[in-house]
Amino acid sequence: MKRFGKCDRAKESKKQKLLKEIEDRKLPYLTPKDVQFEQLSKAKYAKLYIRRASCVPQEIHQKVQQGLTTLQDCRCFAQDLVQIKEKDVLTPVYRLLVGDPGSTYCYLNTRLFTIPWPSRGVEVKYSSDEIGEACKAIKDLNEYLHVEAMKVLLDDCSADVEEIGFVAKAATSTLIKDSGSMKDGTYQSKQSSTSAVLKDRTSFNVTLLNYMDPSRMKYLKEEPYFGMGKMAVSWHHDENLVERSTVAVYNYSCDDLGPAADESNTSTKGRDPAVWHVGLKIAWDIATPGLAFPLDPGDCYFMLDDLNMTHQHCVLSGMQPRFSSTHRVAECSSGTLDYIFQRCDVAMKNLQKDPMLGIPSLISLELDSVKQTEEIHNEVEFEWLRQFWFQGKRSAKASDWWFEPMALLEKSWREMEQMVRFHIMMLIMLAEKGYCIILRL
Ligand SMILES: O=C(O)CCC(=O)C(=O)O
Ligand SMILES: [Fe+2]
């Protein structure tokens, strides 16, 4: 997994430079009570789309909020031990990954393993029926957010055929890159290719659920640039996502304070610290004011297209406990069980068994094939087994689904261990026979 490299160090020093430039003065930011809020949102934050709770079906609210509460009551959430600037840190928010069976999601050097949501053809035993229902509700929410995100993106496309909107343009430019040219395509085929691209970028395969009760979290960092107050999640870009994919978030702040939109009537400056907000800013830009928008229970927001690349976001704590469900298209090319089992198969191709005696031996002693086995051996050990067991039996609170594949991976790992041992034995034997061995591993 990625370590704190040169690039991170360069970013850190750029950040320190910015903080120095700002010194003690704080940068301006806007909330909906500021008159320029609308204008700034349109001009600089156009790819942020908010859907207020009143426009989301009541059935979704009821089932999702019940589901999140159940998962919390069953203690399925846990703090993650992540790496920030080479230090190990516990996240203030408690998290749980739900998603496609066998998928994982990496962030800040930690691999999280999905509690599978119900999927056709996959049998999942949940620890209780209520947990099963909760995962079903999250899956239905996922489907709803996918459909809504598609509508928003396609609306933007169909607004005007000539002057297509930002998202369609981005999708179309990908198509041009992929197909070399669009000259011979009909309008319909362009449209359907565009919607296929947009479909891929909104087919969320995981959701990272968050939970935090601020009354139990005494120490929270202050937002450093704008003075937005306490942060539950610091400024960041979401990692490991399919390029230009949407991130859709359902907010459930267990608010008994009345609607957050009340903010628009108050005359105090800045955001209301009692209400949960999401903060947004343009990355590395200290000229454009930031945004803090308040969230009522059931509000959803979407970070469309490349917003997550060009902008950073943070979560500003309110007073009440809060859940969120953050739906993502995780980049899974090396993050699924299918993938890692295929890798194991590749390594096993170099192992044969004597048909009579059943004694295993290596087929090839070529350096490349031994090296490849060792790479796969390490990948299974460090990216999967250690990552999984380090998190203990946390996933078992919701389901025992991962234990069987983990046992299979461990079996493969043992076989690869044996293959390395064979190889070393061969080298020793050759050395004893007087061969000169040059190791280039
Ligand atoms: O809770 C939210 O609104 C967003 C959380 C977030 O940014 C994250 O989990 O990456
Ligand atoms: Fe995020």
TrEMBL record:
Cross-referenced InterPro entries: AlkB-like_sf, FTO, FTO_C, FTO_C_sf, FTO_cat_dom
Keywords associated with the record: Cytoplasm, Dioxygenase, Iron, Metal-binding, Nucleus, Oxidoreductase
Cited Pfam families: FTO_CTD, FTO_NTD
Gene3D superfamilies linked to this entry: Alpha-ketoglutarate-dependent dioxygenase AlkB-like, FTO C-terminal domain
SMART domains according to UniProt: FTO_NTD
Subunit structure: Monomer. May also exist as homodimer.
Domain Alpha-ketoglutarate-dependent dioxygenase FTO catalytic, residue spans: 34-332
Protein name (Swiss-Prot/TrEMBL): Alpha-ketoglutarate-dependent dioxygenase FTO
Organism: Scyliorhinus torazame (Cloudy catshark)
GO annotation, biological process: DNA alkylation repair; regulation of multicellular organism growth; RNA repair
Family stated for the protein in its record: Belongs to the fto family.
GO CC, one annotated term: cytoplasm
Annotated localization: Cytoplasm; Nucleus speckle
Keyword Transmembrane: no
GO MF: broad specificity oxidative DNA demethylase activity; ferrous iron binding; mRNA N6-methyladenosine dioxygenase activity
Reactions listed under catalytic activity: N(6)-methyladenosine in U6 snRNA + 2-oxoglutarate + O2 = adenosine in U6 snRNA + formaldehyde + succinate + CO2; a 5'-end (N(7)-methyl 5'-triphosphoguanosine)-(N(6),2'-O-dimethyladenosine) in mRNA + 2-oxoglutarate + O2 = a 5'-end (N(7)-methyl 5'-triphosphoguanosine)-(2'-O-methyladenosine) in mRNA + formaldehyde + succinate + CO2; a 5'-end (N(7)-methyl 5'-triphosphoguanosine)-(N(6),2'-O-dimethyladenosine) in U6 snRNA + 2-oxoglutarate + O2 = a 5'-end (N(7)-methyl 5'-triphosphoguanosine)-(2'-O-methyladenosine) in U6 snRNA + formaldehyde + succinate + CO2; an N(1)-methyladenosine in tRNA + 2-oxoglutarate + O2 = an adenosine in tRNA + formaldehyde + succinate + CO2
EC number per UniProt: 1.14.11.53
Enzyme class: oxidoreductase
Cofactor requirement: Fe(2+)
